[in-house]
Amino acid sequence: MISLPQAAPRVAKLTALSIGVALLATACGGSSTPSQTGATTPAASGIACPAPSATAGSTTAPGAGGSVPASTTTTETPLKIGSLLPTTGSLAFLGPPEIAGVNLGIKEVNDAGGVLGKPVEVIHRDSGDTKTDIATQSTTALLGSGVSAIVGAASSGVSKTVINQITGAGVIQFSPANTSPDFTTWDDKGLYWRTAPSDVLQGKVLGNYMATCGAQTVGMIVLNDAYGTGLAKNVKEAFEAAGGKVVAEELFNEGDSQFSSQVDKVIAAKPDAIALITFDQAKSIVPLMTGKGVKATQMFMVDGNTSDYSKDFQAGTLKGAQGTIPGTFAKDDFKKKLLAIDPALKDYSYAGESYDAVNLIALAAEAAKSTKGTDIAKQLKAVSEVGEKCNDYASCVTLLRNDKDIDYDGQSGPVTFSDAGDPTEAYIGIYEYQDDNTYKPSKEEFGKL
């Protein structure tokens, strides 16, 4: 059995983040107010991460009460939203929470009377992954159905295959989970938006967090696509800026099924910690690492693979491993609403971002007094900033119909868009694996871009 070396005790050197990212102290309760992290929790191989903070609050701030006034403008063309989310492929585990988030948003919009006097329609299609042409076929079908906006895809790589097709048709593409920085400068005619922050932020949080845990050296196993290499770049920059060194960075391609070479090379570099920047390939990689003596507490995962592994590994396999997922922790009342939509739901990753995407599209349509994609897109930034705070469709549309400016903040956290359609501020949740190989909220980091 090979054991990775102990990291020398130290206080990690945290630096101010570059590229306009300003991380605040750890926050709990869904607030941007910093809170104390408390004592550290000892872990194997000399890594000692900050102790978990109190989890996010159990409830969400209530929306405005009372009945929703009728729209003064009605439409002959009901708002139609498509979803392009994974039910097959390497990110299929993200499909259920994202689809539930979309369906909950649609339900609440329609319960409040719909958009411009008509119920909103939704059409779901599978995005697959980059090994197939499913996304292109699904996009063609959605555009043929006359949708004004498409929520998806989850995978940045998949979105790159359809973004020009969608935006070229004058339709909004609104991803709840794309994190590649490439989309910030994409020529999308103002029609690409996302509620998930760029991996500039997730990478900074993960890189700095591994440093706060005492790791001086890191190895990385990275999916060789827009998501993986972009995230790895930002993790590396943050970790090295904090005084650490990336001693191994091994790539693999989508569709690969053998990872022994990458695992062996990373272990040979004897890093204190290992970052797994993968999708469901982690199911094959984790057993290879633990079989060679890597401790779970040395493993740091990301949104592409922080999932429920209770049916995949023996109990205790991942106990103490940690992972990052953009967005604030899902609140208990929001989980209950999602479970009413899909009682089989186990993961909640990007459910809030998907729910928020639907609400923002619907509110922007109301603000534009139009269900045309290009008109809706022109109002998305406006409904996210500088106005009266509101956090659900009923309360927000009530304000709009009373000629008030609104500032929508949703289940994913604060939402304020840049001109490029990116969130300018967001939470990154840090989760810790339990003995049953499921993960629980540990702490949140808040950042601005």
List keywords for this structure.
449 residues; alpha/beta; Rossmann fold; 5-stranded parallel beta sheet; 18 strands; elongated
The helix/strand class is alpha/beta
- Number of DSSP helices? 11
- Mean pLDDT, to the nearest integer, reads 89
| Terminal residue distance | 43 Å
Question: How much β-strand is present in the residues?
Answer: 15-25%
Residue stretches low in confidence (pLDDT < 50, at least 5 long) are 5-44, 55-65
CATH topology of the largest domain: Rossmann fold
Rg over C-alpha atoms, rounded to the nearest angstrom: 21 Å
Percent helix range = 25-40%
The CATH superfamily title of the largest domain? Response regulator
> What is the strand arrangement across the widest sheet?
1-18-17-13-12-11-9-10
Main sheet record? 8 strands, mixed
Q: Report the CATH architecture of the largest domain.
A: 3-Layer(aba) Sandwich
> Which sequence of SSEs, written as H and E, runs from N to C?
EEEEHEHEHEEHEHEHEHEEHHHEHEEEE
